[in-house]
Design brief:
Layout (H helix, E strand, L loop, with lengths): L2 E10 L4 E3 L1 H11 L3 E6 H5 L2 H14 L4 E7 L6 H12 L5 E5 L12 H10 L3 E4 L2 H10 L5 E3 L12 H10 L3 E4 L9 H9 L4 E2 L9 H9 L5 H15 L5
Parallel strand pairs: 1-3, 3-4, 4-5, 5-6, 6-7, 7-8, 8-9
Antiparallel strand pairs: 1-2
Helix pairs in contact: 4-5, 6-7, 7-8
Length: about 240
């Protein structure tokens, strides 16, 4: 089973995106993806309550195809953020959390710790737009939480340093690397699997922001064994979300 662990749905003037579930599911069909794990852009950048509700409506339309991330656009809502995670898990059936971090509004701060603890309590993974340094802070605070470093260091805030991302993930058993990135360095996937094992690498595309065909090719056109490829392209994220691969 192939599962894209990093997909965006909804509207964002900032990113110039307006994409619905029908478009994404049709794209997944063309790509051969069985399931897509979605973050709603309204929740990510504006209103977590409204965005998560909108995603739930799309999950209900495609229950066998869309898996939802509860999404927070800030760590600094205290009890309200924790209540929103409760609602998304219990009422909406979401299987993970997505949160964004920037140098100006980093999630590597004390306000994030109760959120990490809540996700550890529910045993749901977090897809975090973070740098290796931020992940060091987060994993030291709550080492039992399952954290996926979005883009595996291949993003501007992390200076594209996927080598450092691999070293950081090697120090933390519950830190995983997600592959979506506009950085297309030869050998990245093989290096990550060689250093960490296939069980620590999560396939994602960042669709529709990035070209999903290119992101798929980064995994398919590697020297990974069929078993390793199956883990990376679906088995690992399903396991983290509590499914049987």
């Amino acid at each position: 089973m192939i599962v894209d662990a990093h997909v965006h749905i909804g509207k964002s003037a900032r990113l110039q995106i307006d994409v619905g579930a029908d478009f994404l599911v049709e794209a997944a069909d063309r790509l051969g993806f069985d399931k897509i794990c979605c973050t709603d852009l309204t929740a990510l950048f504006y209103d977590m309550h409204e965005g998560n509700r909108l995603l739930y409506e799309e999950m209900r339309r495609f229950p066998d195809r869309i898996l939802g991330y509860a999404t927070l656009h800030s760590t600094r809502f205290g009890r309200e953020a924790l209540d929103e995670i409760d609602r998304c898990v219990h009422d909406y059936g979401m299987r993970g959390l997505k949160i964004y971090s920037t140098p100006e509004a980093s999630i590597a701060e004390p306000a994030m710790i109760p959120i990490l603890e809540k996700c550890a309590e529910y045993n749901i993974p977090i897809l975090s737009h973070t740098t290796p340094d931020e992940c060091e802070y987060l994993m030291a605070a709550v080492p039992e939480v399952k954290l996926m470093m979005a883009h595996a260091g291949g993003q501007p805030y992390a200076k594209g340093d996927w080598n450092r991302a691999i070293m950081t993930a090697g120090r933390h058993p519950n830190l995983y690397l997600e592959t979506a990135s506009s950085t297309i360095d030869a050998g990245f996937v093989e290096a990550a699997v060689g250093a960490l094992g296939a069980s620590k690498i999560i396939f994602g595309t960042d669709m529709p922001l990035l070209d999903p065909y290119v992101q798929r090719a980064k995994i398919v056109q590697t020297r990974l064994s069929p078993q390793e490829r199956a883990q990376v392209m679906g088995g690992n994220i399903l396991q983290l979300m509590g499914f049987q691969a």
